[in-house]
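Retro notes - structure team

What went well: the batch runner handled both jobs without manual restarts.
What didn't: labels got mixed up in the shared folder, which is why I'm recording both outputs here explicitly, each with its sequence directly above its tokens.

Job 1
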Amino acid sequence: QAKELDMQVHYNALTAAVNDPVACDVVISRPSFRGYGMMIATVGLPPGAEVDRGLLEDLINDGKSGVDSYEVEPDHVTFYVWPRAADVRFRFVFRPRYAMKARAAQSLLYDYYNPDERVVLEPATFVVGQ
């Protein structure tokens, strides 16, 4: 567990119907604000999740979020985050496309220049019905 980094990931629902929107709130901080440079955050998704890329673009374009860019992968979204004095807080939305009971990929945060300084979160389990 990292001493200089902290990350919280909260899904507003772990039980949903196919195509129901699920919001994911992310809080990233560098409590002592020691270190500098980009942090990389990956937020786990359940299998087959469709991420709302429009909201991600809005997050990048507002210039206030602390998120510089992102990449959507099949099992997670990677966010490139610049540290700030305040916490970096953002939300994105995805929709599960298949009925399932499955664990999401794990979420993690690490310092780009010091990848051994990392926070790893337990994967959430999603139940998606028809």
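Job 2
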Amino acid sequence: LAATVDARDPYTYGHSKRVAEIAVSIGKAIGMSDEELARLNAAALLHDIGKVGVPDSILGKLEPPTAEEWAIIRRHCAEGAKIVSYVRELDSLVPIILHHHEWYDGTGYPHGLKGMDIPIGSRIISVADAFDTMVTIRPYRQTVSRTEACEELKRCAGEQFDPKLVEVWCRVLNEIATQR
């Protein structure tokens, strides 16, 4: 299922896998159990499955989406949750996928959840998704370095992202960099 989204958009190919790897790194660093990590990994792999309902003309645009196109793109969270809900074994992933674009300050979508009301898996995927998007080539903007991406996450901590999870990811990323 995750490969379906990646296959439709050459600019995001591998995105779901990278988001899953980052999310699991964060989950391990905060002490999630093996069961929680497995659920987080699966939800991260499937977080964008709802984009199968977004027309190619929008996904493949070389310029930023219009307001109308953003409205269509934003539906991918609910569509993804709906798709996954049809598989009983994946039922526990539904809230994580549904809420991965909620913002820590309550201004995200689809339901405007705030802070700890947002499932932990969704908050983790939000950080991982944003980081990967910033450091990966996209047709409508330049990439940034890992350091710059961490700085942007920190700048948006408390607003878009859970500050503790941003801190954890930037620390983990720094530890990875110093091990190389």
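One thing worth noting from job 2: The radius of gyration is 15 Å.
We'll revisit the folder naming next retro.
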